[in-house]
Amino acid sequence: MQKIDLVDRDLFNPGHAACPGCQESLALRAILNTIGPDAAAVFPPSCGAVICGPHPYSSLQIPVFQTSLESAAAAASGLRRALNQRGKHDTTVVCFAGDGGTYDIGFQALSSAVERNENILYVCFDNEGYMNTGAQKSSSTPLHASTASTPGGKPSKKKDIIGILAAHGIPYVATAATGHMNDLIAKVEKSLTIEGTRFLAVLVPCLDGWGLPDDSGVSVSRLAVDSGMWPLYEVEQGHRYTLNHDNKTRPVADYLSLQKRYRHLDETQLAEVQAAVDQDWAQLRRRAAESTEARASG
Amino acid sequence: MTAATSPLWSNGSTAVIHTGTWRSATPTHNDLPSPCHQACPVGGQIARWIGQLRDGDVLGAWLTLVEHNPFPSVAGRICHHPCETACNREALDEAISICRLERAIGDRAIAEGWRYPEPTINRSQRIAVIGGGPAGLSVAYQLRRRGYGVTIFESQPALGGLLRYGIPPYRLADDVLDGEIARLLDLGIEARTGETIDADAFARLRAGYDAVYVATGAAKSKRLPSIDPARPWVIDSAAYLAETNAGGQPRTGHRVIVIGGGSAAMDVARTARRHGRDVTVLALEKETQMPAQREEVVEALEEGVQLVDGAMLQSVTEHDNGSLTLHCIRVDFVPGSMRGEFTIEPVAGSEFELSGDAVVPSIGQQADPAPFGGGDGPLLGVDDAFRTGLDNVWAGGDVASMERFVTAAIGMGKDAAEAIDRAMNPGTAAIVDAGDAVPYAAINTYYHPPLARTEAAVRPVAERVMGFDEVQLALDAEAALAEAGRCFSCGTCIYCDNCYLFCPDMAVSRLPDGYAIRTEYCKGCGLCVRECPTGAIQMRAGK
Prior knowledge:
The complex is a heterodimer.
Chain A: H1 23-35, E1 39-43, H2 47-51, E2 57-58, E3 64-66, H3 72-85, E4 92-98, H4 100-104, H5 107-115, E5 121-126, H6 161-167, E6 172-177, H7 181-192, E7 198-203, H8 207-210, H9 217-226, E8 233-236, E9 240-243, H10 252-256, H11 267-296
Parallel strand pairs in A: 1-3, 1-4, 4-5, 5-7, 6-7
Antiparallel strand pairs in A: 6-8, 8-9
Helix pairs in contact in A: 1-7, 3-5
Chain B: E1 12-13, E2 25-29, H1 35-39, H2 46-54, H3 58-68, H4 72-78, H5 82-86, H6 98-112, E3 126-130, H7 134-145, E4 149-154, H8 162-165, H9 174-185, E5 190-193, H10 199-208, E6 211-214, E7 220-221, H11 237-245, E8 255-259, H12 263-274, E9 278-282, H13 294-302, E10 306-308, E11 311-318, E12 324-335, E13 342-356, E14 358-361, E15 365-366, E16 393-395, H14 406-424, H15 461-464, H16 477-484, H17 498-501, E17 508-511, E18 514-517, H18 527-530, E19 537-541
Parallel strand pairs in B: 3-4, 3-6, 4-5, 6-16, 8-9, 8-14, 9-10
Antiparallel strand pairs in B: 2-19, 7-15, 11-12, 12-13, 17-18
């Protein structure tokens, strides 16, 4: 059995207010301890901002700056430059934002930071909705998922944030999931060796918002990967695609049927979701294959 | 360094907030018994020693094995392996090849000359063991390890009992048996071979020793009512195997009919094939009902043994030229609720004949408990602690049980040694196996991807019938390691850190020998239980 390749350096404190079994705090623990103590974090309003701790307590052993929902990437850009001014070029500046603060409200700040190629690591904890405020839909919510603001299911597809950022020519963008911990850790480590803007989208199944048992986050995130709903891949320099888990082994129904937010799904809707996943998967594989060929031909 | 502080800054740690108050159920790390351990006749901590083997600690694995059974090389060859039948992995793909792993470790110990640790204490009490077969050797070993003086009395010229005189060398090579017995005697056990204990000698032993253990086995062949055992063409099954195992070649006619469906019948039939005879086995049971291990039946058929199943001998006609006609009839065999019990219903009009030159009834063995206070009954009666009706006399193995398996006898010896130890020295803690076995549902199979069982090689048939070399071949070290890697380690912590690193609340701490739940922080989500690959953590209700 492969062990989790993580040395916990106690950079994430117990006593935080995340829900039992929270996948976001699990991911945060792995990422913080992989980056190490020489780092500063920016949190826009999100579950993460709550997990950071109520004043005057913090759950992180690194400095945290809490900013507004629109401006995580802008604040991180400023923090980066201020640290550079003080000669702290090696201190990692990391944003921990939710999907609302990334796909929607914080998007213009993110897009312009990537356009300027700010030297920051931007982590999006993607739980596919505004879970902190009562599970409203975001542009990350997948097709047909029910939320407080789309009780009959969301009629539109999940926004392709990876494709959008790749179109910016960002040096490094990748997906990860808590059920594939070593892949997540390896991607954080890789991002630390790259100069410029790096973006990591981590799928964090929301137990309360998706309607899941407290102990199921890790296994559900694996089903997301195995069904192709959340493929694990990376894109370098906007065009070099690598598929990290080239093994779509399960129908999406195996993943969706566990979640209350898909309880209303009929056969037609299920078939639509499956077809969309199959199409995206085929495109992803094509891009990965083209990248392999391009590398082979130099 | 004094950092500038501001009342706006959050300099405290959330560690002061005890989120454990949220919890309604608490995970606990408990090593639970594995199904293989529960099924094992010697209670052999199988998940533990397979784990040690997997970690490269072969010596540690051997030491765990011999806590319970001084014969891993023997058992690894001939055990009926109820452990493999119980294995949780069967529900995923195939059971672990536990016997072959045990054999690999046992053979390594013989090759390396590993010895048992000396007993840490020496006690004044002396125990006499009557019978040097599996049960007697097991009890002697377990008592000697606990410091007792032990003398074994064996009527045959060499120790081993059924292992030496009943199991042919192609299933159990002599050097394996000799190696494991020699190591056991080296602990300081006295062996007096060639001494038969009758009722008078038994009385003297009772007077001269603090306790006596009777393990004389079941050495007498059962009689078949349809034939006269005095006829020259009737061959005693046990005597035949004893002679052939010692290297002899008994004179029999060319066409040998073996009657019986158990392991002994297979042993006789396959031995006779190796002596170039035409062999037919006549069994009451249908092929799939035969009490012999399935692989023995398959191998016998491969070696050219003819099987006539579901049939019974009724009478024999002798001809002047010495040949025989066996008058047989088809029967319906219905097994009873207890091992060895059955009913048969002859099928009217299904009579048929077989021709042969010799008949070997091999329908089981009888014990002779009379000299040891057993009266006329078939067995020496014992209680749960293997104590007979006589003071300070214990018994086990085939003389006291119808459970006719070698490893069952070894297990009875181990259990009796524990009982004798408690009786001789009150205060010795009783050993209890608590709890139900870990079910398949408790195993997170994500961590155990399907992987075919590593099968060991079998000697080609053409070579097999030429001699008595072992049929089942060993797993090499690499294959054994790969097979050990398939084990779920049901209920046994493998220190993988999953519980520690998958906790979102830093509520599991690592200790030098395991893990502890930090109950002040654990919110009771159960993620550690779910992601434990071996089922070694359980949730219990409450704080």
